[in-house]
Amino acid sequence: GYFQTEGMRSLVQQDPVRFLEMKVLGRYPSSVRAVGFKLFYYHARDGAKAAVWPYLRARRDLKVIHLKRRNLLQTHLSRKRAALTDRWVNTSGQPDSSVVVRLDYEECFNDFVQTRAWEEQADRYFADHATVQVEYERLSSDYRTEARVIQEFLGLQPHPVSPSTFQQARQPLSAIISNYAELKQRFSGSAWSEFFIE
Question: Is the pLDDT of residue 2 over 60?
Answer without folding.
Answer: no
